[in-house]
Amino acid sequence: MSKICQSPNPTAPVSALDLELEISPPMASTSRWWWSSWAPLPSSSSCRHHKGGDGWGLGGPVVVKAVGWLLLAGLLFRVLFSFPSSPPEISSKEKCNLFDGEWVPNPSGPAYTNKTCRFIDGHQNCMLNGRPDMSYLHWKWRPYDCELPQFDEVRFLTAMRNKSWGLIGDSILRNQIQSLICLLSKAEEPVDVYHDKEYRNRRWHFQSYNFTVSLVWSPFLVKSAVFENENGQSTSEIQLHLDILDPIWSNQYENFDYVVIAGGQWFLKIAVYWENGRVIGCHYCKDKKLPELGFEQLYRRTLQQVFRFIGSSNHKPVVLFRTWAPDHFENGEWYNGGTCSQVSPYKKGEYRGNDIDHIMRPIELEEFRKAMAALGGSQNAANLKLLDTYSLSSMRPDGHVGPYRYPFVKGDKDAKSVQNDCLHWCVPGPIDAWNDLVMEMVLN
């Protein structure tokens, strides 16, 4: 019998660590780059005094007293040795680390395609954009000690009746929400009830369930001013206010019953840092006479602010903190010819990560553990969960968009003019497993 899947104790150490094409209306959006018990005493039995020859074979008060002492000694022995040597488990359910496992073949293929879902952003619609191989669609994530059920859209929507979700972060969260909307639309297509001019912030409503899903664009999680076009080309340095949480999400926080929040990728960009209303330094701004502050400690400080806000808020949503999303660029980066040409998953331990992974991931895990320790046994501690997608994602170099970010012209695959996207994921693709995990963590 399979063990019952549960997310692991968030304070415990975390190991370091899926056709047919049809043109469908893309999900409009920008292409921006870049969560002792005591044993009961034995029941007493009354002792009758027996006369000699009534079955005991012996008689007299001395014998009776000796027998009484023997019975008492036996009773004490049973009581003493009935105590457990260690506190028993509170729950009889065996725990399973959902994030420790392997990718196994899945002949049935993906839960949806661009033929059945019209909510896929053009930049992640690898099928529509001409990706010829389909092998990346035929894998599923399997934890070592249990089974991870496939996303059940009807069950999820039924459980989330009259609820509201907010996914807060950058384009990786937008990538995930495309997968979520496609999975849910198998049961009911949502109504697009809001979007801003750039389609960065959006809201969908599933009318039969009165269920709302919101995408909240906040790439730094703290207040920022960004001067970039949809291709990541900047006209000025980003202005980042390290001591002010981004009001775009913090002012909406109380509207959500469930939150998925993540960040990190944008901290690698050129930025000027502000604190207390003044400039205190920058990251990689060579032409300015400002102290170089790097990005590591600034990301750490941001997470500390985010977790403090969650812990001190009177509103108690379930919060899934999603961990760092790995990329698989080879022979360069996105801006200088990097590619990702793998066509099959890595095996466990085959991918060791890159330098940035080894910086950002430990920061996230350390700050999450500190946040859980600070929360202690409060309700917020029960509601804050680690959605650790790093390990399973790091094994899928074949699932990225690669050169199929835009409609692919045959023969241009190796041309230097074709930009590869080895950070975002094809939809459908490995990112669907993230939402399988979300459902398991929230409902089971």
TrEMBL record:
GO MF annotation, one: xylan O-acetyltransferase activity
Subcellular localization, as worded in the UniProt entry:
Golgi apparatus membrane
Record keyword Transferase present: yes
For this protein, the parts annotated as crossing the membrane are 62-81
Enumerate the spans annotated as Trichome birefringence-like N-terminal domain: 94-147
Q: Its topology with respect to the membrane?
A: Single-pass type II membrane protein
| Listed InterPro entries | TBL, TBL_C, TBL_N
Q: Where is the Trichome birefringence-like C-terminal domain?
A: 148-441
The keyword Disulfide bond is annotated on this UniProt entry: yes
Q: Which UniProt keywords apply?
A: Disulfide bond, Glycoprotein, Golgi apparatus, Membrane, Signal-anchor, Transferase, Transmembrane, Transmembrane helix
Provide a GO CC annotation, any one: Golgi membrane
> Mind telling me which Pfam families this protein's record contains?
PC-Esterase, PMR5N
Family the entry assigns: Belongs to the PC-esterase family. TBL subfamily.
Q: What is the protein name stated in its UniProt record?
A: Uncharacterized protein
